C-alpha cells in the first residue's frame, strides 16, 4: 500500500500572522469536513497532510502543528550545506527547524529562477543526505503537449533529475504546467495515465506519485479515485482552510 499524501504548496503566500490564522481555522475545518468527525490526528495519520510553506513561516507552522500529525515542508533547498550563496537555504537549516519534506524542481523554479535538471538533481541529493523527503516536480508545457512531446519530456526530466538518487525516499509530483493556477485541470484519467507511465519508468513499486494542477474540493474525489494517483500537490486551494480541509478529507470513491 503506497502512502497517500495531501500536500499544500503555499508558494509566496502568508505572513506568520496569516499562517497562524490559517492553522486555527484548518484544525476546526478538518474535523467538521470529515464525514464521521474523526479527530485530527486520526484523519492525518491515514492520509499524510503536508504544508509546504515559505521559509519565514516554517518555524511557526512546525510549532503550531506539533502533535497534530501534519508534516511541514519547504519549497526549495540549496545543494551545499553552507557557503557564500546569498539568499539560499540549506538542508541542515531546514532539518533544525523540524521540516520533513521539501519540494524540488517546481515548474515555477524552473521557469523563473533558471532551475535545470542538473541543479534539481543536486538539490534532490542534498535533501536525501539530510534525511528530508524531496517531492520532485515534473510536467510538460502546453506547447509540448500540443506537439505530442509530453511523454518524452517527462521521461527525460526523470532520467536527468533522478540520476544517482535513492528511489526509496522520494515522492514525485506530476504537475502539467498548463494546469497550474489556470483552473484547467488535467482530466483525471489522463493524469492517471501519465502517472502510470512515470511509475513504470522509475520502476519503484512503493513510490508515491502525486498529481498537481488546479486541484480543488470540487475535483478531488474524482482525482483520488484514480488507481495510480497517490495524492495531490495543491497550490491556490491550499491557502483557504475550509477548501484544503475538504481536499484532505476527500471521499474515497470506488476505483475508476
Ligand atoms: O503548482 C501547484 C502546486 O505545486 C499547483 O497550483 P494550483 O493548485 O494553484 O494550480
From TrEMBL:
Question: Keyword set for this entry?
Answer: Cytoplasm, Gluconeogenesis, Glycolysis, Isomerase
Q: What is this protein called?
A: Triosephosphate isomerase
Known function: Involved in the gluconeogenesis. Catalyzes stereospecifically the conversion of dihydroxyacetone phosphate (DHAP) to D-glyceraldehyde-3-phosphate (G3P).
Q: Which reaction does it catalyse?
A: D-glyceraldehyde 3-phosphate = dihydroxyacetone phosphate
Question: Where found, per UniProt?
Answer: Cytoplasm
Which top-level enzyme class is recorded in the Swiss-Prot or TrEMBL entry? isomerase
Q: Where are the transmembrane segments?
A: none
Family named by the database record: Belongs to the triosephosphate isomerase family.
This protein's assembly is summarised as: Homodimer.
Identify the residues that bind substrate: 9-11, 181, 214, 235-236
User: What molecular functions are annotated in GO for this chain?
Assistant: triose-phosphate isomerase activity
NCBIfam families noted in UniProt: tim (TIGR00419)
SUPFAM superfamilies annotated for this entry? Triosephosphate isomerase (TIM)
List, from the UniProt record, the residues annotated as the active site of this protein: 106 (electrophile), 175 (proton acceptor)
Amino acid at each position: 500500500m503506497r502512502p497517500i499524501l495531501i500536500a499544500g504548496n503555499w508558494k509566496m503566500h502568508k505572513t506568520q500572522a496569516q499562517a497562524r490564522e490559517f492553522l486555527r481555522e484548518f484544525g476546526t475545518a478538518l474535523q467538521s469536513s470529515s464525514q464521521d468527525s474523526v479527530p485530527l490526528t486520526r484523519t492525518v495519520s491515514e492520509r499524510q497532510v503536508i504544508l509546504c510553506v515559505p521559509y519565514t513561516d516554517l518555524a511557526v507552522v512546525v510549532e503550531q502543528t506539533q502533535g497534530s500529525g501534519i508534516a511541514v515542508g519547504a519549497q526549495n533547498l540549496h545543494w551545499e550545506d553552507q557557503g557564500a550563496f546569498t539568499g539560499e537555504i540549506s538542508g541542515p537549516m531546514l532539518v533544525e527547524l523540524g521540516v520533513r519534506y521539501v519540494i524540488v524542481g517546481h515548474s515555477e523554479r524552473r521557469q523563473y529562477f533558471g532551475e535545470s535538471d542538473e541543479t534539481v538533481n543536486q538539490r534532490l541529493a542534498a535533501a536525501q543526505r539530510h534525511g528530508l523527503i524531496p517531492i520532485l516536480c515534473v510536467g510538460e508545457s502546453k506547447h509540448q503537449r500540443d506537439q505530442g512531446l509530453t511523454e518524452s519530456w517527462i521521461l527525460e526530466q526523470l532520467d536527468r533529475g533522478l540520476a544517482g538518487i535513492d528511489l526509496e525516499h522520494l515522492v514525485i509530483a506530476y504537475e502539467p504546467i498548463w494546469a497550474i493556477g489556470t483552473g484547467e485541470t488535467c482530466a483525471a484519467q489522463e493524469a492517471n495515465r501519465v502517472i502510470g507511465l512515470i511509475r513504470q519508468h522509475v520502476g519503484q513499486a512503493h513510490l508515491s506519485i502525486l498529481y498537481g494542477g488546479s486541484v480543488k474540493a470540487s475535483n478531488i474525489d474524482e482525482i483520488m479515485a484514480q488507481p495510480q494517483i497517490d495524492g495531490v500537490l495543491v497550490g491556490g486551494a491550499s491557502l483557504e482552510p475550509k477548501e484544503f480541509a475538504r481536499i484532505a478529507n476527500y471521499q474515497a470513491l470506488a476505483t475508476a
